[in-house]
Amino acid sequence: MRKMTAEGRRDPAPSLIAYRMQRLWLTPSFQFAIKAVLPAAAVALLANWYIDGEAIRRTLNADIKDIRRFVAERPEFMVRSLSIEGAGGQLEGAIRDIFPIEFPASTFDLELDRIQSLIEDLDSVASAELYIHPGDVLHIAVNERIPVAVWRVGDALMAIDDEGSRVAALSRRAERADLPLLVGEGADTAVPEALAIAAAAEPLKARLRGLVRVGQRRWDAVLDRDQRIMLPETDAVTAMEIVIAFDHAQNLLSRDLGAVDMRNPRRPTVRMRAGAVDELRRIRALEIGGADL
Question: 186 phi and psi, to 5 degrees?
Answer without folding.
Answer: 85, -5
